[in-house]
# Entry
Amino acid sequence: MSSQSRSESGVETDVDVVVVGAGISGIGAAYHLTHQCPDRGFVVLEGRADIGGTWDLFRYPGIRSDSDMHTLGYSFKPWTHQKAIADGPSIMEYLRETVAEHDLEQYIRFNTHVERAEWSSDAARWTLTARDTSTGEPVSYTCSFLFMCSGYYSYKGGYRPDFPGEERFGGTLVHPQQWPDDLDYQGKNVVVIGSGATAMTLVPAMARDGAGHVTMLQRSPTYVVSRPDKDAIANGLRKVLPDELAYKITRKKNIVLGQFFYKQTRTKPEKVKKKLLDLSRKQLGDDVVEQHFTPSYNPWDQRLCLIPNGDLYEAINDGSASVVTDTIDTFDETGIQLSSGGHLDADIIVTATGLQLVTLGEMDFVVDGEPVDFSSTFTYKGVAYSDVPNLASTFGYVNASWTLRADIVCGWVCRVLNYMRATNTDTVVPRLRPQDQDMPVRPWIDDFSAGYIQRMIPMLPKQGDRAPWVALQDYGGDIGLIVESPIADDALHFERARVPA
# Structure
């Protein structure tokens, strides 16, 4: 490192790299840095008291992955559980094992919430203003490279629209992101508002765990795919092959199949739509599928919902759960009055209405005294930002497992750091080339109409119509764009600091 300093408590506060966030992305970043850049000092700053991010925050009934763990897991650590669609506690166990096996906790500073990052081009360093959430005391860190692994949604609270008359409701109103530990729903009527992954997890879980009746109230249908929670091929391979090889084969299989299916939805949407609806009809019958499970859009225009072992279908068929497709006129004292004139009685209403998305960890960024507006920048390969030095961030796939892209981004960051060391440079910054100045502007994510993404688009960087100013949301494309391409190109500038350290 160029310099070292420590706080009064003896904690190192001046490092080569700061990673923000100790969830799946941040833990992966710590692993890659220790293995690919062992000569760099780094810390992982985590605002909460534990690792895990999403998997520590969400505690609602049935919390689970909606991606298979052979792709949501890390490339370097095999997933060896029988269930490929895993519950939250199992995923937390996997993350704890990863941290322990690679001695990563030594790098993590818990209860350290980063609020502001200021870059000085003269010194080629970031100064981070943070707060110790356990004491309220300010904390400062400096680094030469900042790696944001804080996800894309606010930890302060989820997205919830204001519902007419909600103050009149006499029961319990709860959002899944703030699930009370002591919520008693035994024998009670529950209405879950929403039709995304959270709602489709909650409904069968609460029905199975003793709720009187659970109703999923949706404004419009979502595509639902049922699959076994166990991967028979993966479990079979582990019986005859070492865990690492079995995992590698399964991971490759699932990546290829996932890419193939997604591409089919883009090139043959009507064929895929018919196939998905036919599968649902076998479980629920024509009438239910026609009314409640036939979306108006094509598959993967929004994210598909995965239900393990058809648990939602089972709950509907045995009468412990039901689906209502309607809009809300108003809440009242005993439930929800629907626009159609119907009424849903409820003791508990769960607003599974989505996440409140944010840009780069709800932090303020300043470069040489000027605030950074990320919506006015162009993305560089979906990893970095035009005219913002020494900064990278992880944003996963909306059409595949988050960790697939997190691994790719970590590899790119390590390659950049090693290139800077080899070329004796201090600053790396993407800049538009002359031929890029007038290129068409496209949103960060194209061809994806989900509300939670559309609400976020105005805050996100733009992308252009040519490499490297694109965010592909395509694993195979990212292999070529990020993994196999040289680090140095005519849009990525490497420079020396103005003031020698």
Q: What stands out?
A: The radius of gyration is 24 Å. The chain is about 30% helix and 20% strand.
